[in-house]
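## retry 2 of 3
previous attempt timed out at serialization; input unchanged, resubmitting
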Amino acid sequence: MVLHLLSEKGALDTGRVRVRTLTLPDTYQDHNSPDTMYAEAGLDADSIVRTVQATLPEQKAGRLRLA
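## retry succeeded, writing output
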């Protein structure tokens, strides 16, 4: 819970590494297909890509350098 809260508030974004946790919500989800339930929880491929893109620093040009 502590890691999740800190990452949600961006408190771990001060260094070169940015942390985001992707977890199932702590709420009841209606029964549905797994694909629908993951999408509702923000854990489908599109949601994960959006989270990654929103978390990565903006690039001026070229590819992101991790080294």
